[in-house]
Amino acid sequence: MRMFRKNLTKKVISSAICGLLYATPFIAACSHAQQANTAAISKLDLARLEKEAQMALEKKEFANAAELFQRIANAAPEVGSYAYNAACAHALKGNVDLAFTWLQRAIDAGFVDVKHSQQDGDLQSLRQDPRWGGLMLSMQKRAEFLGRLWNSSVWKTAYKANLSVDEKVAGLSKFWSEVKYNFVYTNTLRELDWDAVYQRYLPKVRASKSTLEYYKLLMEMCALLKDGHTNVYAPDELYESDFAVTKIRTRLIEGRVFITEVGDQQLIKQGLVAGTEILEVNHRDVHDYARNDLAPYASASTPQDLETRMYSYEFLKGSAKEKPLLEVRDTQGKRHQIKIDRVSFKERNKALSGLPAFSWRMLPNNIAHVALNSFDDDTAAVAYLKAFSEISKAKAIIFDVRENGGGDGGVGFKILSTIAKQDFATSAAATRDYKPSLRAWGNPESLHHFPQSLEAADPQHQFAGKVVVLTSARTYSAAEDFSLAFDLMQRGKIIGEATGGSTGQPLFFDLPGGGMARVCTKLDSYPDGKAFVGVGIQPHHLVRPTIADFHAGQDTVLLAAIKNINE
């Protein structure tokens, strides 16, 4: 099934109304006739219709789901994902012929995600049909044709230890141009003089001696934009060799760097355990190391986001051939040195514990602590609704999104719908409205503001008790959309630290040698225009973790939330 808010898309903003397909890189413009049709469906509340269709799927009412998706697709024929979802519903029902018919309609409308289609379990019943291979070939050809305009296959070149100068210059130019025409924060481009930045990096790129050096230059250039949803990603080969990581997790607490988890028994035997403070890296003060070796390549929207990247996400990243030397201080105050191995991300993830998307527990005094650690897929919402009958017995709920890096905003809204007495607002959104002819006539570029949409309350699941949301600088992207919507609801207090301050709709594209990049194309804000991107959603009660509580194994922010509820 093709989700409407998939992969870094934070909310539905009348997608049929605008002809905006978040789930694929190909966007069709609305004709006047299409806009008229869409206006008709909008009166019936498109968002509700989409939710009704999704609910029908969840209940395995496939015929009803197919009918609803067809209705939406007929009203918004320029949005290929609707036709695709209709095809999925027909396939699940066993209507093979209709499924192929709607798949073809999806392709005609610009749905060309071959990889997703081939992996989608909803279409399993179609794959043995003789028509399947031809349809996938048709989708692939359509994708290649459409891609020639914005992301031609010419950019998918093989990895080499040192790309040619032509490839490097072409990749630089590709990144520069995509940012110039798609980056939504145009004042940043003016302040930087983006063309001058290009000219400044051109000789550096030409002089680079390796693909590693080249990609680090692109990352450095990208970091100037100071946007967490605009990034350069090196080829996979470099993440194995030169962007390797360690089997520890770290965090900045009260200005000092502490280890929070160790996933290597050999390191533990040498005294490197949770609670150990890191003082130096390779004989350099830990903050000097972070500022000079990590910060220049980190794309971050706020100071708190940059801190998180320097001292947590990017900390100790480097060559797998090198072992950084750490000067540490243990919990008894003794200092010693230790060398630490770097490994691949895959090996690191095996060694360190991962947080589940959803977990909950009942705290003393009948308070439910609900950890929402990821909105990558529907897992958190599905698990929450499954446990709702027990959770709703609590006198209060603490929603904890401090470790939630985002994903699909719709997942969070589905959870918020259970504490909303009525339909609730989310962020306002806009994108650049660039028209070449108007530029030729000397008219300034403007913004296109998407119609404000409401999320529906869930009448079947309602909690009327007290609610608190916990946030941190690691609360990011779709989790910030969740926090903003909660703030607008005036349903309870946000406790903790300011969020990371970055959300939006990234546009992905390929770079030479197997790399890629993304550019933020959507400006999100509070409905009244108040900014949170570049600032962070501010808590009603600012509470920061303390070193004393950390060493004592206590959660400073959670304790403050419990106190707030009990008072």
Quick take:
The chain is α+β, with helices and mostly antiparallel strands and 567 residues long. It is 43% helix and 16% strand. The protein starts with 14 loop residues before the first helix and ends with a helix.
How would you characterize the overall build of this protein?
With 567 residues, the chain is of the alpha+beta class. Helices cover 43% and strands 16% of the residues. Helix 3 (46-58) runs antiparallel to helix 4 and helix 10 (186-192) packs across helix 11. It is globular. Strand 8 and strand 9 (367-372) form a beta hairpin. It has 24 helices and 20 strands.
Radius of gyration: 25 Å
- Note the total helix count: 24
Task: Report the principal-axis shape.
Answer: globular
Poorly predicted residue ranges = 1-40
Overall pLDDT? 90
Separation, N- and C-terminal Cα atoms: 45 Å
Structural class: alpha+beta
Major sheet description:
6 strands, antiparallel
Oligomer: single chain
Beta strand % = 15-25%
Total beta-strand segments: 20
- How much helical structure, as a percent, in the residues? 40-55%
